[in-house]
Amino acid sequence: MTATMTTDTPKRPRFHLAFPVDDLTAARGFYGELLGCPEGRSTEDWVDFNLFGHQIVAHLAPEEVGEAAQNGVDGKAVPVRHFGVLMDWDDWDALHTKLTAQGTDYIIEPYVRFEGKPGEQGTFFIKDPAGNALEFKSFKNDEMVFAKSFE
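Structure (tokenized):
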């Protein structure tokens, strides 16, 4: 994983996502230290992070933290409420290698979906300390991100 991966700023549009956490110190450890997301502005109640060029904001809202519903995809229980990023294949591979070496518990272990087909993609899911689900994925061919068929 390269040092510039989390600070590269894509051309607009970029997304902004605000989400609840029950502990800002734990959020800083997970997003800032484990994932390597640079921290932006903050107050006593929220912290901005640069998630691979996108602005995410952890808001202290313990009453909003809880388990998400699940949906079956490829025989796996995917959290319905989740967020994440589409990454370059080498960066995706480096991130899951780093997380595995750190002993990260996966909701869904890294694997390749639609192998050998147009929609071929690597994906994995993890949870932050507040239980928010994150998906990190990469397509072998970026032109297939919005393809209507996997055949």
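The radius of gyration is 16 Å. Confidence is low (pLDDT under 50) at residues 1-6.
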